[in-house]
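Example S7 (structure tokens).
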């Protein structure tokens, strides 16, 4: 692979990984399993190692976690919450081809560790890698001060009230009266509790959670602690951050301290003295972990003695004194009996393998994702094949490969179009190939399965947050033809809803209940939610509409630039962004070098002229857009999708219906920032800011003030930073700013500066 090919593949991998990171960290969901994600990350690391000139600091290989959420107050970690380096158990093909042990990568890591320490007199602790959500809890003078998520490693979300709903986490430590003790651990929902929670949600007509980890992430992101209280969260502490004045000599003494304080910790723990003991402990854990109450896919390995931690240090992403040894996902062979095809919210068709049930990783598996038609073709998967499936975590497993030795002679290559006779399995409309993608799609917007998925999306927490509109309710509303469009929800009444006959629910005993009515109480809650949703800001409505390629961030940026739907319909900004995107794509495909090499002498001048005109148009568009400081979150793809939606029959129908219903949401962050005399005359216009520490108001408030006057707020300190707004407990950013001679101001000084800027700008 040459450098240009490597660069192209690196960009593809980064885009894919960032997309999956956003799903995992921001939305508490995932589309691929852990092993598939790990494969993408391993490939990216390898390419960056081979091509160091192509590495950049924003690469997913150099980033920890996800960005803090805007809805929460933020906590700046005094000691960074880093990730842990992954060490993978070798797969069979690697073992067979190289003639080495499955634990070879772990042996190499241990040897490197021993050489770095410079002695063999050290011990290594082994404990389970819990498949949960990383949190930190800080106690000051024995009382809880805050609890926070990891966030991006430097700044996390304040989830104190949510963590306090966990019975095993006390608000006060009885045996400590002074000092600071910061505990780090993993929040999770046990496997049994997860099953019960999903049964409960199904019975309530709510959408089931994908897996325990996603349920945990979604729970911690709830803004209402009362909702969190109803979820069976647990927490296990496994390490520490800031401590004063006490200190620990090793991890063993830390575990003893947790036990003494009556705090939750993992009972499975080994302290090993050499490589052979370490490997044996890792093997033992792999056997015993299947009996644990929580999900785990590996072992966390740490140097036991704390004195070695400082010596070994860390990278920007992980400490050098620890690693996560990830076991191979459990595999099994079974027969692929048939293929069903699911229709998603946007009409995309997803094939699913229907398998002869097989017990794997503690559960019986009967279905596995096949992703898309191209993936099926690549692996040559056929109905009747004996397939190898892999289960990572608790999500739907994937088909890894086919056992060709067991293939019946009667099998034929699978093609989704032929399998469906070219018809949507839900509405029988003609399916089409999605341009530029590997997927087939149903384009009938009235397709029942699409409509059901749209209703679920429409009602989601970050959309309109409709209480009680789950999968079973959505299915019933669609199949009974009560709803033909999401806006029909606003025509519902309590009588219609309360008499909905829902399908039987699965009981804890495994039996099914009798058919049940939705009921008046639930109906009242849903109607009240619908009425409340009319007051929600424009961004939530844009996101709720489920426009292709328009996520939460793009919706927020769109509402910043437009005050209501009428402005979006007539938006010059959206048209400019689309035109810019089209020109940029044209210029990428038609470089001057390519034009000169492929054109005849007669046509060359005209093509060069066209190329230069395109460049001039691009400069002109960028000049017009510059004044609005449009975020990258609202790019050409998103704008094209918005334009196509508002000009489609379906989009026009929905927007007209909202107008008829007198639902006219307006922006709560409207600030298009055109160049005006106010901005030009502002002393902070064009300046770059970073905000750190604890302030009297949420950071978004201060960010908004800065941006109104033409300043720009960045996430990290650099030489280009002009100001650091520093609140209480400002951490590493304060030191960095001081070293770079960046102007550091406190909140009081900031308020004076802003007031002064406003006064000057109005003169």
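Recovered sequence:
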């Amino acid at each position: 692979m040459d450098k240009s090919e490597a660069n192209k593949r690196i960009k593809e991998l980064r885009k894919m990984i960032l997309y999956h990171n956003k799903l995992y960290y921001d939305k508490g969901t995932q589309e691929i399993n852990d092993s598939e994600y790990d494969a993408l990350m391993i490939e990216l690391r390898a390419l960056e190692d081979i091509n160091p000139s192509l590495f950049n600091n924003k690469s997913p290989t150099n980033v920890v976690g996800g960005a803090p959420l805007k809805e929460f107050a933020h906590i700046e970690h005094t000691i960074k919450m880093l990730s842990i380096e992954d060490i993978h158990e070798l797969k069979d093909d690697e073992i067979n081809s190289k003639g080495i042990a499955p634990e070879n990568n772990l042996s190499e890591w241990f040897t490197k560790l021993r050489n770095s320490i410079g002695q063999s007199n050290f011990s290594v602790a082994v404990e389970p890698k819990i498949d949960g959500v990383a949190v930190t809890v800080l106690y000051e003078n024995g009382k809880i001060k805050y609890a926070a998520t990891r966030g991006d490693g430097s700044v996390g979300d304040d989830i104190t009230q949510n963590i306090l709903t966990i019975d095993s986490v006390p608000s006060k430590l009885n045996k400590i009266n002074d000092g600071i003790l910061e505990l780090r651990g993993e929040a999770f929902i046990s496997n049994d509790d997860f099953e019960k929670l999903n049964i409960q949600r199904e019975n309530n007509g709510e959408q089931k959670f994908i897996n325990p980890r996603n349920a945990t992430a979604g729970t911690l992101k709830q803004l209402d602690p009362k909702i969190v209280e109803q979820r069976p969260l647990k927490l296990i502490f496994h390490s520490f951050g800031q401590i004063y004045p006490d200190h620990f000599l090793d991890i063993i003494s830390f575990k003893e301290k947790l036990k003494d304080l009556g705090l939750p910790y993992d009972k499975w723990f080994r302290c090993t003295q050499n490589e052979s003991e370490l490997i044996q402990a890792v093997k033992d854990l792999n056997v015993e972990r299947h009996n644990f109450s929580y999900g785990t896919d590996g072992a966390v390995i740490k140097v036991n003695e704390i004195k070695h931690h400082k010596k070994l240090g860390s990278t920007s992403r992980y400490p050098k004194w620890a690693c996560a040894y990830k076991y191979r996902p459990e595999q099994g062979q079974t027969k692929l009996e048939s293929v069903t095809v699911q229709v998603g919210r946007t009409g995309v068709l997803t094939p699913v393998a229907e398998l002869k049930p097989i017990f794997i990783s503690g559960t019986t598996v009967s279905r596995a994702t096949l992703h898309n038609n191209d993936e099926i073709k690549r692996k040559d998967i056929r109905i009747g094949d004996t397939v190898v499936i892999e289960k990572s975590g608790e999500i739907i497993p994937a088909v890894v490969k086919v056992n060709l030795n067991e293939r019946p002679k009667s099998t034929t290559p699978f093609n989704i179009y032929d399998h469906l006779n070219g018809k949507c399995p839900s509405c029988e409309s003609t399916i089409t190939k999605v341009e530029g993608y590997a997927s087939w799609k149903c384009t009938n917007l009235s397709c029942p399965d699409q409509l059901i998925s749209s209703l679920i999306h429409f009602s989601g927490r970050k959309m309109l947050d409709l209480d009680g509109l789950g999968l079973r309710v959505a299915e019933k509303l669609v199949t009974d033809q009560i709803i033909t469009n999401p806006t029909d929800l606003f025509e519902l009444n309590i009588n219609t809803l309360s008499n909905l006959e829902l399908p039987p629910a699965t009981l804890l005993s495994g039996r099914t209940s009798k058919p049940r009515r939705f009921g008046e109480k639930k109906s009242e809650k849903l109607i009240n939610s619908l009425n409340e949703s009319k007051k929600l800001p424009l961004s939530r409505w844009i996101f709720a509409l489920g426009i292709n390629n328009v996520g939460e961030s793009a919706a927020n940026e769109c509402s910043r630039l437009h005050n209501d739907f009428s402005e979006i319909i007539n938006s010059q900004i959206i048209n400019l962004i689309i035109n810019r995107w089209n020109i940029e794509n044209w210029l990428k495909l038609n470089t001057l070098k390519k034009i000169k090499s492929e054109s005849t002498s007669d046509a060359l001048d005209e093509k060069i002229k066209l190329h230069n005109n395109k460049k001039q148009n691009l400069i002109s568009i960028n000049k017009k857009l510059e004044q609005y400081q449009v975020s990258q979150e609202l790019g050409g793809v998103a704008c094209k999708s918005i334009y196509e939606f508002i000009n489609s029959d379906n989009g026009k129908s929905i927007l007209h219906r909202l107008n008829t219903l007198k639902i006219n949401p307006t922006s709560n962050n409207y600030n298009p920032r055109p160049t005006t005399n106010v901005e030009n005359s502002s002393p902070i216009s064009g300046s770059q800011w970073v905000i750190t520490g604890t302030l009297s108001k949420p950071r978004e408030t201060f960010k908004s003030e800065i941006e109104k006057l033409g300043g720009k707020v960045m996430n990290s300190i650099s030489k280009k930073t002009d100001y650091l707004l520093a609140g209480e407990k400002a951490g590493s950013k304060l030191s960095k700013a001081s070293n770079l001679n960046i102007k550091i101001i406190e909140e009081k000084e900031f308020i004076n500066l802003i007031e002064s800027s406003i006064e000057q700008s109005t003169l």
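Notes on this example. The chain is about 40% helix and 20% strand.
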